[in-house]
Amino acid sequence: MLAQRLDATLQSLKNAAQAAHRPVPRLLAVSKTQSATAVASLASAGQHAFGENYVQEAQAKTRALESLGLEWHMIGHLQSNKADIAAGIFDWVQTVDRLKLVTALARSRPPQRQPLNILIQVNIDDQASKHGCRPGEVEALARAIEGEPRLALRGLMAIPTPHADIELRRIAFQEMATLFQQLAARHPAVDTLSMGMSDDFPLAIAEGATMVRIGTALFGPRAP
Ligand SMILES: *Cc1c(COP(=O)(O)O)cnc(C)c1O
């Protein structure tokens, strides 16, 4: 069942990429609220990278599945007082949006682990949300991250407003792609633009996403 959904999702990514003449993006399987058993079965079908939104939930799952050697991404809002735990359990943090978090993650990344991969979360169009930095703050954050040997700057992440009007979503994805190109021109290690979810990934891929974050289309609807 999960294996079939994975195959179908990977095929949709390929189709969307081909239609838009873009490279096929990486698939991040969003496993928030899903059991460790469900993650393990998707892993046995070949999926390697998983995204979690809550530090405590991720702590339990990463511990239970440690022997599988999976790659774990933090994609939820990260409070500074949880940064020490997050720095120990994740391979990537996609939601860095302030200097305080940069310093806290760098300080807490265990020395025996690879540098922690970092995406800067940009608040591209949501006036109401306090999460994500403004586009004008990206470069200062990027420099701070590059100044930390325990962190590796990899790119940008966004959760645009889910406008019913597809053209409004497209504009947000295009603005992210422009910011991403500017960042990559100044920072050669930058290679990841994380955007697009179950209901809008073809559009995100058409506009240049290199990683899509998909939950519902893979695991089915989440329990409320
Ligand atoms: C839950 C979540 C997703 C996945 O959403 P689906 O609509 O279930 O694919 C992607 N990104 C973030 C940041 C999320 O919180």
Automatic annotation (TrEMBL):
KW Transport (keyword) present: no
State the superkingdom: Bacteria
Protein's UniProt keywords contain Ribonucleoprotein: no
Q: Which InterPro entries match?
A: Ala_racemase_N, PLP-binding_barrel, PyrdxlP_homeostasis
Residues bearing N6-(pyridoxal phosphate)lysine are K32
Which Pfam families does this entry report, sorted A to Z? Answer: Ala_racemase_N
Domain Alanine racemase N-terminal as annotated: residue spans:
6-221
Against Gene3D superfamilies, the record matches this protein to: Alanine racemase
- State its role: Pyridoxal 5'-phosphate (PLP)-binding protein, which is involved in PLP homeostasis.
Family indicated by similarity: Belongs to the pyridoxal phosphate-binding protein YggS/PROSC family.
Q: What is this protein called?
A: Pyridoxal phosphate homeostasis protein
- Organism of provenance: Pseudoxanthomonas gei
